[in-house]
Design goal:
Helix content: 25-40%
Shape: globular
Radius of gyration: 25 Å
CATH topology of the largest domain: Chloramphenicol Acetyltransferase
Structural class: alpha+beta
CATH class of the largest domain: Alpha Beta
Number of helices: 11
CATH architecture of the largest domain: 2-Layer Sandwich
Number of strands: 21
Strand content: 15-25%
Largest sheet: 7 strands, mixed
Length: 422
């Protein structure tokens, strides 16, 4: 018997344990190499463990148990891997080899990846959106389709009725409704409440949010911005941008550049308190809040002052995908000087975002709504967005906060300012 130990992998010096939140397989199952085995939740990140070899698995801990880094949570009997069975004879007396390709067929890595068992998240999204994982080019290990691949495919798919793989038909345009119905369907019949343990990540988020409100003299100032210029710029150059860079030009890169410009003009916002010292930052690593199933994460885009618009868009998209796929690392979350959070994608009109310590400020973006405004003595309809800047009043004065927000507003309403640095 050849037993391979499945251990909890190292995840950074500050993480020594976590919760094995979920097994993706059952005790005694035969697993394939690179197949997802378990989901590990820590107070900082959520990650997925995969099989290093094929074979029959024996579980050593239960879902929900606390586990230590390096702890053995299962073993795989590689001698009982699929395909290692004794050769069988066909009806014609020929030996059939389990792992041999069919006559005339060449081995295909992509085909093997698509035949591999899909993760629960991929299967759930397949049921909700009607997107068949078999039709997607996977970006995961060995070509495996990830949750991020499914989300991207769902966004690219034209709206309208679809035929799900394993669920009733649901319009792609209503993913929130679909998920709500799915959640209701999974609740035990006749049960008015369900109870589950708070995950380490959710507990850490709660702890940090409460600490931020208790420790900082937090204040929020507001403004509104006319999005006409940026929207016209995107419409004019979107096709050329996509042809050259292979991705769409979004709003976030404009706001990232506007924030960098404002931080350069108002350096007090790019500082933080450490004990009785004020630490002034002279670099521009921006955190971009990303909503995941496990909670809010803030991956950091490095050196935004030196990146072009396409590089910022690509970095944000990559970080968001890895966060949703559970592949984010501690290094991705550390070192930001300022955070941008966009509640507008969920329809938020206005909010007061909470500072992400030890940063001194955070910018909240909101939904773009056409509404009447007064312009040059005339009432006109314009696409408007509310901006909210929350800041630590111990370090940033009201004048500096308002000036910062005005600089962001000016840069978005007249993007030429970003080119001229005025």
């Amino acid at each position: 018997m050849a037993l391979l130990e499945v251990k909890i992998p190292p995840m950074g010096e500050s993480i020594s344990s976590g919760i094995l939140a979920k097994w993706h397989i059952n005790d005694g199952d035969t697993v394939q190499k690179d197949q997802p085995l378990f989901e590990l939740e820590t107070d900082k990140i959520t990650s997925e463990g995969t099989a290093e070899a094929a074979g029959k698995i024996s579980l050593k801990v239960a879902a929900g148990d606390e586990v230590k880094i390096g702890q053995v949570v299962a073993t795989i009997d590689t001698a009982k891997a699929t395909g290692s069975a004794e050769p069988k004879k066909t009806a014609t007396g020929e030996i059939a080899h389990p792992n041999a390709p069919a006559p005339g067929a060449a081995p295909s890595t992509a085909s093997a990846a698509k035949d591999a068992p899909q993760s629960p998240a991929v299967r759930r999204l397949a049921g909700e959106t009607g997107v068949d994982p078999a039709n997607i080019a996977g970006t995961g290990k060995g070509g495996r389709v990830t949750k991020g691949d499914m989300l991207a495919a769902g966004e690219a798919k034209p709206p309208g009725p679809v035929t799900p793989v394993a669920a009733p038909a649901t319009p792609v345009a209503a993913p929130i409704k679909a998920r709500t119905e799915s959640a209701l369907a999974s609740a035990p019949a006749g049960q008015r409440q369900t109870r589950r343990k708070v995950s380490p990540l959710r507990a850490k988020i709660a702890q940090r949010l409460v600490a931020a409100q208790h420790e900082a003299a937090m204040l929020t100032t507001f403004n509104e911005v006319d999005m006409s210029a940026v929207m016209a710029l995107r419409a004019r150059y979107q096709d050329d941008f996509v042809k050259k860079n292979g991705l769409k030009l979004g709003f976030m890169s404009f706001f990232a550049k506007a924030v960098v410009h404002a931080l350069q003009e108002v350096p007090a916002v790019n500082a933080q308190l450490e004990g009785d010292s004020i630490v002034e930052n002279h670099y521009y690593d921006l955190g971009v809040a990303v909503s995941t199933e496990k909670g809010l994460m803030v991956p950091v885009v490095r050196n935004c002052d030196t990146l072009g618009m396409a590089e910022i868009e690509r970095a944000i998209a990559d970080a968001a995908k890895r966060a949703r796929d559970g592949k984010i690392t501690l290094a991705d979350l550390e070192g930001g000087v300022f955070t941008i959070t966009n509640g507008g994608i969920f329809g938020s009109m206005l909010s007061t975002p909470i500072i992400n310590p030890p940063q001194s400020a955070i910018l909240g973006l909101h939904a773009i709504t056409e509404r009447p405004i007064a312009l040059n003595g005339q009432v006109v309809i314009r696409p408007m967005m509310y901006l909210a800047l929350s800041y630590d009043h111990r370090l940033v004065d009201g004048k500096e906060a308002v000036t910062f927000l005005v600089k962001v507003k000016q840069a978005i309403e007249d993007p030429t300012r970003l080119l001229l640095s005025i």
